[in-house]
Request: fold
Amino acid sequence: MGAIETLATFFGFDEHDTDLETESIAGVTTFLAMSYIIVVNPNILGEAIALEGYSSGEVTQMITVATILSSAVAIFVMAFWANRPFGLAPGMGLNAFFAYTVVLSLGVPWQVALAAVFVEGIVFILLTAVGARRYIIELFPEPVKFAVGAGIGVYLLFLGLQEMQIVVADPETLVTMGNVATSAVAALSVVGLALMLILHARGVRGAIVIGILATAAAGWLLTALGVVAPGTLTPQESIVTNVQYDFTPLVAGFIDGLGMITDDPLVFVLVVFTFFFVDFFDTAGTLIGVSQIGGFLDENGDLPEIEKPLMADAIGTTVGAMIGTSTVTTYIESSTGVEEGGRTGFTALVVGLLFLLSLLLVPLISAIPQYASYLALVVVGIIMLQGVTDIDWQHPAWAISGGLTITVMPMTASISNGLAAGIMSYPLVKASMGEADDVSLGQWALAAAFILYFAVFFAVDAQMLSF
Reply:
């Protein structure tokens, strides 16, 4: 049996009606869509992490290596254990909470923050092993499960259009349409998006990859020709050139953090709780939403053997904390690879290998402008809107909980907030309709857990504002 046949058998290509070429293209697509994290995550965490005897640039380079390695570890677990086409990396939002709220605002030492992420990861591993995470996710009301995909779709559209500068901030209406005539990024993004949509509509394999690379190349070409100023359509000069591969000082910091937990145990518990809660539901929402467009969900809206992909983010989070980065989670950008036909862990394997390769090619990876990779989010966001057809809009409980799930996600820039809105509203609407018997005790408990979470979240936020 040849190498290709062995891979096909191990990952189940025939069972999932896919092939090596399709899976490889899907892996490249997902990597390109999420590779921005290699540069963005170190920049965010680098503002909160300082090491005596090292410059800020050297610390950022260490975090770059930690970002890549923690992503690769989690992705390989996803590939070989879960056999799912999902990419993982330190989560956006969670890294900002780590840096700006926990460390810079609350004054928690970054070493202790890493210890909190580590404890979160250990708890995730234990809960996943005993099936608790799967049980909780399966408690989600059906309308919420079927609305997650569309909610993430709108969220992706919103993120993509903002990065393209088609949607911009407005002091009176919060957001408004950007001016394509005056924004070079918006103008090139519209052209790149048009190319991507045309190729997708014509069924061209690799349409998303082609669109990303063509748009990035056009940005660099227009810059080289002097049509636009440097840094307008291309990233600012990367600070990561000769990478500092020795990240052991971050590991030493993590070890120190474990010994500092008892200095302020209450704050430590609050930080762990917040990391845990947000990551739990962000990951659950992403897995369900991306699985919906891949056709992985069963008739109840559940992902079979969901505990396997959940274990990938648990292990990634634990390892990531030990080597110096924030919580690792499944990425919504995985939907780009799924849309390209990725159906097995081989897609994830390609993503993981490209992450490892990026250890040598960080400057090249960072040369792809973020707006170019975000074009993919717009295309996939449109496709994910098909999930609204799975919702019974004539049933008040389905319409209200499903509608809130879809709309709150993009409006609050949070998958977990969208889930919270749907999960909390469902039992209340069902009870008001005289159908309280249809709501399980677990669903009531889940709604109560969200109320507790928001009470803690707002308490932490109030404490932050008092500084």
